[in-house]
Amino acid sequence: MIVKDSKMKRKWGMAIDLDKCTGCGACSLACNQENNMPIFEDDSDVPKRVAFLELMKVTNDRDAKFPDVKTAYLPKMCQQCEGNDTHGHKADPPCVSVCPAVATDVGDDGVVSQIWSRCIGCRYCQTACPYEARVFNWWKPEYEGTFKEGLNPEVSVASRGTIVKCTFCSHIWKRERDKAVAKGILDINAVTYTPACAAACPTGAIVFGDLNDPNSEISKLAKSDRAVRLVNAIDDQPEDKKKALMEKKQYPNPKVYYLTSQKWLRDMMRFKKNS
Amino acid sequence: MKKIDRKDFLKIGAGAVVGGVAGYTFSGAPFLGFQWLVEWSQDQYVPAGGVEKYVQAISESCVNGCKVSVRKIGERAVKIESKEGVCPSCLNALQLLYHPERVATPLKRSGEKGSGKFKAVSWDEALKDISAQINKAISEGKANSIAAVNKNESINGLLMEKFVRAVGSNNVYYEPTWKSLTSQALGGYIKYDFAATDYVLSFGAKLIEGWGNPVEMQKVFVDWKKKGVKLVQVDSVCTRTASVANEFVGIKPGSEAALAFGIANYLITEKRMTSTGADFAKWSQIIINKFPLSKVAALTGIAEDKIKKIANDFAQSKNPVAVAGKGAYGMSGSSAEIIAVYCLNTLVKSRAASLVKDSEISYVAEFSGIDKFAKEGNFSILILNNSNPVHNSVYGEELKKKMGKALVVAITPLINDSAAYADYILPTLSFLEVETPQNKAAVIKQNEAKDAKEIIISLASMVEKAKAAMPKQVSDVYNISNKEVAAGSFSFNVDKIKNDIDLYEKKLTDKEYPVTLVPMEVPLVCNGEGLAFPYVLKSIDPTILKLGKFYVQMNKDTAKKYGFSEGSSIKITSARGKIKAYVHLTDTVAPETVAIPLGFGHESYTKYGNDKGVNPKKIMTADIDPLTGIADWWSTRVKIS
User: Fold this and answer.
1) Do B628 and B523 share a structural domain?
2) Are residues B198 and B347 in the same domain?
3) Which of A99, B3, B65, B204 has the most neighbouring CB atoms within 10 Å?
4) B588/A152 touch (CB, cutoff 8 Å), yes or no
């Protein structure tokens, strides 16, 4: 079979419905297992904790008093920024443009890659990331004894002194593509996949899919009134002003959408003071 | 043809070398070389590859009977997936399966009790000695001094219940589950039909966090959202359930029962609603006399009008249901509260709550519940079936002392706080290593451990008295059918709880201990079971455990009043003792309340679970409920300094 047009048509994105999230932690467990997270006896040093997905507990207790308070859980991973095109340059996420080692880049599918073994550990990208989604291996990732047996061979174990992060489980996509090829399907656009966190979510709060496909669930969710992107201030601006601003300034322009009808949560995600 | 002279020869040679180096450089191979260098110099671990395969497994150690799909690479299991929903411990099964501290062979105590010194013995030796001691106790006529504590009502629990009863003892206890907690109070446990209800009034039950059955509750939550079921959450801590509820009613900690009395009072006196039974008539008289709305408002901190509104909304819904039971994993509640909340259901004739019983589990034992047994019971042989009462019971310390004088057998995959005091540890398999009627074992056995069912059956086969009544082989276990049967009409012993209701008001207004300590549950940690697993430790929020420091949560105004600020250390003292922690300020907690994370402070639970936080059960109220035999520990009056 000859594939005439194998150009990538997909742009992977994620929508997380915070109103549906119960905070059960299944996404976090599934991510840790899938991506071979290093094991520590005491993992309570949170800024140095190596995990791709952080289950953040958030509340509006700064602006509200008991019992008018609310709590929510916010699963936060790499937001897979797209950046935006200013002055005719290539659009780059904040982390990609600062990497001196080409260890991180944006694929044609929109996923921001990270190649552990190429990373020289300068941590520029970690500083540049607006979401603290990148973590640094301060220690050598170790797996005590038999814990090694549970490691996934598709995700390489990182070495000490490198940055790691969520890659939308792109190894699962590769797995699915390989399976498709084995079946004789050579069209890359015929294959879809689900990252570990989305597959593990028991209430269907995490939806993953193709943002370029206008009929996909994710495209519809991304356009809904409930959608909000983390600290991407430009989303509030009217369309024409947005265009003008985008030509002048860089925005992270993430591909992870959070859905909520809770005003306090929407405001908090944009660093706005609760009214 | 031109002759190649020496100069040309050298040129060609040099060209070939330059070309080779350039080709090598641009091929990217040196980068690969660097990668090898990095891997080699850092001794980087490379997981072994193999053929990918998916196999199915069903858990028999949890009550949900979780069905999972296991991704395997060669013989290694690398991922647990599930389409039908799965409870936290089953989702985390790989961390147990490959836990480096899993008990690999039967162990016999070799040092002092509790010293944690064990030596490996053979299965034969262990079972022979244990069965000999059981046989001896039976022949001496002390069969009733043989006791067992089950973790839950799974197949393994059922089998243990059968064994102990066959031996001639009625000392079978369960760690507080919704069933074991309510069965003694109501004569059956309440079966909720959450799919049929349109209005849920929850008295602090952490429904969304997975109350009773996480797999079912997650489905119920999605269903409620779709159908627009109204959820009213009454609680003193703003949990996730409180936040997704249509209405969150903040209440003074520990006064949930008072609110139930108040609503019942209003429905009976103002709305002329009634329920059946002599006990109900007696009970309603007590409630009407002792808990007028004005007093309930003062005790709960909820205005009278608000109570009336909740009562009206509740009564006017098509199929309302009221739920008690507090924690998602740490079930708690006094029988006075459980009965009051169930009375609300009978008053509005809820079709979403009915009393049922398990045909094979009676919950009738020498003592009414596990805490009473730990406090007052005497035993010469104690079998712990995957349970950890030393950590989970407020009478853990007392139980430890008694365990020092008895033969203790722990059937468990990891050495937990209770197993550390055992004479014998019989290691069990993870459910992934167990064959079920539906599936073959998902992975091959990792060590010499055995399936809990097999252990109980082989032990029973060596006990003369139990032999006949017990299944002969593991496959026979599946013939025991535990059916749900109707529990008959609703009745309760009002005289037994009368005293509790009388003292209730006094408890809530203790001047010596002005603050109330309530527990809060942490995702994945459950009731402490999760702490042995590194991937659970990774998910713990920094407001609970940060840089090894353990935090309790306190309202900002309350902190100001008592002179605490963010991160300051705190000493919490109850009538039973004191604990130390650090303070995190948050208004998600009611005033005059300290919320303490549950499940921390293990004495012995692998190196991952040890030395993390404190166990609040040590200082929590230990008043044993007259009906359930379980301490009503959820809210404890304390002073802080």
Assistant:
1) yes
2) yes
3) B204
4) no
